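Dear colleagues,

As part of the handover before I leave the project, I'm documenting each prediction I ran so the next person doesn't have to rerun anything. This entry is a single chain, and its sequence is reproduced below.
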Amino acid sequence: MAVKLRLQRHGKKGKPFYWIVAADARSKRDGKFLEKLGIYNPNVNPAIIDLNVDGAVKWLQNGAQPTDTARAILSYKGAMLKNHLAGGVRKGALTEDEAEQKFQAWLDEKAAKVEAKKDGLEKAEAEAKAKALEAEKAANEARIAAAAPVEEEVTEEVAEETTDDAPKAEAQATNEEE
């Protein structure tokens, strides 16, 4: 039986959500699977990936073949590196402690990169909000400035009309009485 590490689609239309599973290659995309290894949510930035690295490494060592997307996810989370380091331990090139130290150093570096990306995204979002707020303030001030002279003219015109209309109104009232 050929085993594949692949994505199983869940979620609703337009909002995909994936399970990372070990499944028989002959089973359907969303069909039976042998083990659920994690989740992948591409709807947020950065994408949320929760992976059982040890379980994925176990399947890789037993001969499971990841699909292209699953390989990218496993590589991103370090499962491929851990599998590679485990191969080095089996061959005697590394000790178990050295492999674990290298893996932890890689994880720390990766976590720093992810945090830097999150901080950059938050900073860009804050700058965009500040620019939008400034643009909105400028538009409001321009609208107020444009409306203020019109109101003065309108009040002057109303005052003129009322003074001009007073004799006309009196004349109309006398005409109607007659």
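Residues 53 and 78 are 7 Å apart (CA to CA). DSSP finds four helices and five strands in the chain.

All the best with the project,
I.
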